[in-house]
């Protein structure tokens, strides 16, 4: 994927309108990338982890790391490409993907730098400030490894397609030709977690794009298979340590 941006002293900026269900298949860059949803929500998968990014978060992706980007709804991805961080820059030590906070100041600075007519001195000052503003932010990922056994794998793929499905393991067993006990053993041994927790993580992952977009909790929880909002919030807090609202909340110091 080649950015439709412009060459500048240190940073290349590209803007990518992404209609709903657009996917940039797994790929790599020879340079570092900061992927930001300047509008809408992005889902970025890299290093066997998945991040759902609202407009207040971006993901630093080091050079050479395979990743893919998906927009569940109409979004815009603004990407910053950096060949080499300046000596001493903290982000130069980020060897793995790292979520960063996008404050209002940082967002405005990115838009300021996305100007081919900016003079060299102002661009240099802007880039230096931008790199100083990149601050890591904790962001728990809800990773769901897939079982390799074809029977358990069929169950897993079906649940990824329809997370709200409430079939028991015995019910699934009748469909895929295995006992419920066998499926339970396979999920535990091949994903490292019991089936119930694996299904919970699938449901929470499915909810993240809608939560990031600000959809009502009642609708989101029902869509992914929870009968009550309280049950959904309890599961979310149990897995992430925070409520759904706090998961995406980012203080904007420049808001005053």
From TrEMBL:
<protein>
    <submittedName>
        <fullName>Helix-turn-helix transcriptional regulator</fullName>
    </submittedName>
</protein>
<dbReference type="InterPro" id="IPR018062">
    <property type="entry name" value="HTH_AraC-typ_CS"/>
</dbReference>
<dbReference type="Pfam" id="PF02311">
    <property type="entry name" value="AraC_binding"/>
</dbReference>
<dbReference type="InterPro" id="IPR011051">
    <property type="entry name" value="RmlC_Cupin_sf"/>
</dbReference>
<dbReference type="Pfam" id="PF12833">
    <property type="entry name" value="HTH_18"/>
</dbReference>
<dbReference type="InterPro" id="IPR014710">
    <property type="entry name" value="RmlC-like_jellyroll"/>
</dbReference>
<dbReference type="InterPro" id="IPR009057">
    <property type="entry name" value="Homeodomain-like_sf"/>
</dbReference>
<dbReference type="InterPro" id="IPR003313">
    <property type="entry name" value="AraC-bd"/>
</dbReference>
<feature type="domain" description="HTH araC/xylS-type">
    <location>
        <begin position="153"/>
        <end position="250"/>
    </location>
</feature>
<keyword id="KW-0238">DNA-binding</keyword>
<keyword id="KW-0804">Transcription</keyword>
<dbReference type="InterPro" id="IPR018060">
    <property type="entry name" value="HTH_AraC"/>
</dbReference>
<keyword id="KW-0805">Transcription regulation</keyword>
